[in-house]
Amino acid sequence: MTDFSDRFMPGATLLAGDATYTIRAVRTHKRALLVTLDGIGTRNQAEVLRGKLFEVPEGDLPHLEEDQYFRFDILGIEVVDENGSSLGKVVEVLETGANDVYIVRDEESELLIPAIDSVVKEIDTAAQRMVVDVLPGLERRALKRPTGD
What CATH number is given for 71-142 in this structure? Predict the structure, then answer.
């Protein structure tokens, strides 16, 4: 998951758990990046990395413009309406093409918030708080709970 595929260059560093890897080579294949890592030379070595989340060291993150955020800045943030009432926390960010959608969930329900200026009024990542205007049509839906049957 990246919006910055150009950062995958030979010599760049990736983190996976406690391990650090250096990119040796990169090529595109069918709209995907194939990355060769130093120290990973066999299929068995590569297989151990299957399903791992590779991250970028924080110091290597690109600069974002004002009102742009990394996904990790948004996930877990508390969402409140303009009156300060809690709506829950962002648990997922969906990419829809036109704009992202934040899935906001509390213990009983979830709300889909489009990431557009008319709805998202303020994001304060330091305070872990997002203020939204819940426009007509944006309605909570109850979470399905196990019935215990």
Answer: 2.30.30.240
